[in-house]
Amino acid sequence: MSAPAFNLTAEAQRKMMVCYVDVSEGGTTPEWEAQGYKTEDQSISFNPDKSTITDILGDTYTDVNKLEWNATFEPNTLRAGTKLNPILLEYARRDLLPQMSQFRVLLVYGFIGNPGDYEADMWDGCTITPTELGGSSRVGMPFEIDFGGTKQLGTVNAIRSNNIVFTPENN
Predict the structure, then answer these.
(1) How many percent of the chain have pLDDT more than 70?
(2) Residue 76, domain extent
(3) Number of independent structural domains in the chain
(4) Between 12 and 122, the higher pLDDT residue
(5) In 3D, which of 96, 128, 141 has the Cα closest to residue 19?
(6) Do the domain assignments include residue 78?
(7) Is there a contact between 19 and 25 (Cβ–Cβ < 8 Å)?
(8) Distance CA 62, CA 87 (A)
(9) In a domain, 79, yes or no
(10) Is the pLDDT of residue 18 over 90?
(11) β-strands 48-54, 17-22: how paired?
């Protein structure tokens, strides 16, 4: 397996990596909503689960057992026109905790691939939890995404669009 080439002429701009959440609430056709409105800094944390040993010869070895992907969206201001915010608030108000772990999430890498055919990863069992509610001049509800379930590699037709279409990779 060879690493994919970046489609860059300079540095990758942050807007070239977009996280989408399926807000169809279990629908068969995903309704992808881009996350990050007015969020200036957002990263994916890999949170590696590692084990390190030193053998009897004094040599140290580290194994990576798994990566636990996570993302925090803060701030996240409540606003008209979004679908994820009302869903998360309803789940929190009614203590619908199991539903918080049933989201599909799509991560688009606009710096890998070509226009109309960008690399993307989709997870089918992500947990999205609001971490606060309130603020000073606006009501915010920051949230975290814990990527989980089955990860499927593939491509999408656009980086930013209201009509994102995910095509699974042929294995």
Answers:
(1) 99
(2) 14-168
(3) 1
(4) 122
(5) 128
(6) yes
(7) no
(8) 41
(9) yes
(10) yes
(11) unpaired
